[in-house]
Design goal:
The protein is an alpha/beta fold. It has a single domain (about 35-140), classed as Rhodanese-like domain (Oxidized Rhodanese, domain 1), CATH 3.40.250. The chain has six helices and five strands. Strand 2 (about 60-65), helix 3 and strand 3 (about 80) form a beta-alpha-beta unit. The longest helix is centred in the N-terminal third of the chain and has 23 residues, at about 5-25. The N and C termini lie far apart (about 70 Å).
Length: about 140
């Protein structure tokens, strides 16, 4: 390697290090997007999210089926909010909008509508399980019975 190439590499290394140090001194600003994060996820991705957030009190699993459907089996740690209840949207609006929600229903229809409501109500981060509990169960993921 020539001396000229060696000096160029040294200068690039110094420049890279300097930029890193300067960047480290800049005050931190929350760059979280103001746009809500609404994502349709497969049961496999949903399961991964649940596993990654087991100890996270700000991660909520929301079942929007009827109490009868819920009694037949549900995802562990989920809370029930009946989509067909007269006060469903009002109850949804009472939830903490800064938490992260994983929403599911029987087949994906009600959860899709629920997620749309949640977006309109300014929830920050919501995941909708594609195919609902039917697809979840068909994929072999655990349920409480």
């Amino acid at each position: 390697m020539s001396v000229k190439k060696w000096w160029v590499m040294v200068l690039l290394a110094i420049l890279t290090l300097s930029l890193g140090l300067i960047g480290g001194c800049v005050s931190y600003q929350d760059t979280k997007s103001e746009e809500p994060v609404i994502t349709l996820v497969t049961p496999a991705v949903a399961y991964s999210l649940i596993e990654e957030n087991k100890a996270n009190p700000d991660f909520i699993i929301l079942d929007v089926r009827t109490p009868e459907e819920y009694a037949d089996g549900y995802i562990a740690e989920s809370i029930l909010l009946d989509f067909y209840a007269d006060d469903f949207e009002a109850e949804l609006d009472k939830l903490d909008k800064n938490k992260t929600y994983l929403v599911y229903c029987r087949s994906g229809n009600r959860s899709g509508k629920s997620v749309k409501m949640m977006k309109d109500l300014n929830f920050r981060e919501v995941y909708d399980v594609d195919g609902g509990i039917l697809r979840w169960e068909a994929a072999g993921f655990p349920m409480v019975r």
